[in-house]
Design goal:
Layout: H1 5-10, E1 20-23, H2 32-37, E2 48-49, H3 57-66, H4 69-79, E3 88-96, E4 110-117, E5 129-132, E6 141-145, E7 152-156, E8 163-164, E9 170-180, H5 186-205
Antiparallel strand pairs: 1-7, 2-3, 3-9, 4-7, 4-9, 5-6, 5-8
């Protein structure tokens, strides 16, 4: 296993300001570097559907585990949710713009968000993702997650799941997996995501 399911299972679940937990070393330490080297080579900003990227064999194995029943079961137990039959989307980022860390909540079409990071120490400095108490103040946070290799954040999507990080431009490798709130919403969710991405790329090319 590339995922350290025992460490994920044992992570402390917090209930305030919304249900979340953080895992340091969510990837097997002996193979984390191999997975990081197999991460897609991304040269543009924005969230990119994993189906639209190329990646190495180790990363493909990680994707299989993230989509698998064992990981799903751990999250369902920790968050006390029924995730059976829930569709999954996976997006990756490799380049960050100044606006990417703005305070926001995830959309209601998402039920659970999983963020996993693949950066070496010193990359993307000062961009720890912060768990926020409100939508106004990036410094009013209860916890933060460094974007270093193997760090994982999992949270239940709620109307007040505010999070964000300080402005940054440059390389910042991350994966976002979402269990969707409706089993029929995946196609519409992915289509809208891709259309928005194409529009942004066209505007940037002008």
């Amino acid at each position: 296993m590339l995922l350290d399911l025992d460490r994920i299972r044992q992570a402390e679940l917090h209930s305030s300001p919304y249900p979340y937990f953080i895992v340091s070393g969510a990837l097997d330490a002996a193979r984390a570097g191999e997975v990081a080297r197999a991460f897609p080579d991304i040269d543009r900003p924005g969230a990119i559907a994993i189906e639209d990227t190329a990646y190495g064999a180790a990363f493909a194995r990680l994707l299989d585990e993230l989509r698998g029943d064992a990981f799903r079961s751990v999250l369902a137990d920790k968050l006390d949710l029924d995730l059976d039959g829930r569709d999954i989307t996976i997006n990756v980022r490799g380049q960050v713009r100044l606006t990417d860390g703005n305070i926001h909540t995830d959309k209601p079409s998402k039920l659970v968000t999983v963020l996993l990071y693949f950066n070496q120490p010193g990359e993307a400095p000062g961009t720890d993702l912060r768990i926020l108490r409100n939508s106004r103040d990036l410094d009013d946070y209860v916890d933060q997650v460094p974007p270093v290799l193997g760090s994982m954040l999992v949270f239940k999507v709620t109307p007040d799941c505010w999070h964000g990080h300080k402005p940054f431009v440059g390389k910042r490798n991350s994966l976002q997996l979402n269990y969707l709130s409706g089993t029929r919403s995946r196609g519409k969710h992915q289509l809208l995501h891709r259309l928005v991405g194409r529009m942004k790329r066209k505007l940037a090319a002008r």
